[in-house]
Design goal:
It contains 8 helices and no strands. By secondary structure, it is an all-alpha fold. The chain has 2 domains: 91 residues, Rna Polymerase Sigma Factor, Chain: A (Orthogonal Bundle), CATH 1.10.1740; 82 residues, Orthogonal Bundle (Arc Repressor Mutant, subunit A), CATH 1.10.10.10.
Length: 197
């Protein structure tokens, strides 16, 4: 069986038993999700790259020491490590992510909810949880809408740049963002998620 076809737990077991290529598959499989989450939080590519490397260094150390015991829950464990390292980063730097206050097509954006400003650690952690909840909801959007949200809010791309990269008109890109925000609001209401710190 090819490595790519194995599930996370099988790859973890292979790696812990000395099969180094298994780790490369795990990193490749989860890189986009982990990096996107970190970048959304820190809004700085260099810092996001450093933290991404730190996440996998911690994973390697834990697996090599034989202390991994999250049977069948590799991705949630990976995301928890990512979240904790981001919190550590802000604790060490005594600042919290600054979000751009922008209106999408003249409408209030859900991403405006995470306010700018310096906060105490408790508020920073709550904001981290809000962002984490929002990321999970974005993952549930239809692919075309999710792509627009990721490009706009994770990669700071303009609607013109998004339109060019996705080969659609600016109006189509704006429309997809509008529907993404509508769908996110519906999911927030359905799951009764609180988005205020």
């Amino acid at each position: 069986m090819q490595l790519e076809l194995k599930n996370d737990q099988e790859l973890v077991s292979l790696y812990m038993n000395g099969h180094e290529p298994a780790l490369s598959i795990l990193i490749k499989r989860h890189k986009r999700k982990v990096y996107s989450y970190i970048y959304l939080m820190v809004k700085n590519r260099d810092v996001a790259e450093d933290l991404f490397q730190d996440v996998f260094m911690k994973i390697i150390r834990t697996l090599k020491s034989g202390k991994y015991n999250e049977e069948g829950k590799f991705l949630p464990w990976l995301m928890r490590i990512s979240h904790n390292l981001v919190i550590d980063y802000f604790r060490n730097n005594k600042r919290m992510m600054m979000c751009d206050h922008q209106k999408e097509g003249g409408e209030y954006s859900l991403f405006d909810i995470i306010k700018c400003g310096s906060d105490n650690m408790e508020v920073s952690m709550i904001k981290g949880q809000i962002t984490s909840d929002l990321c999970k909801l974005v993952e549930q959007l239809p692919e075309e809408q999710r792509e627009i949200v990721l490009m706009r809010h994770f990669n700071d791309m303009s609607f013109k740049e998004i339109a060019e990269q996705t080969n659609v008109s600016i109006n189509t890109a704006l429309g997809r963002m509008r529907y993404a925000l509508i769908n996110l609001r519906k999911m927030i209401d359905k799951h009764e998620i609180a988005l205020t710190a």
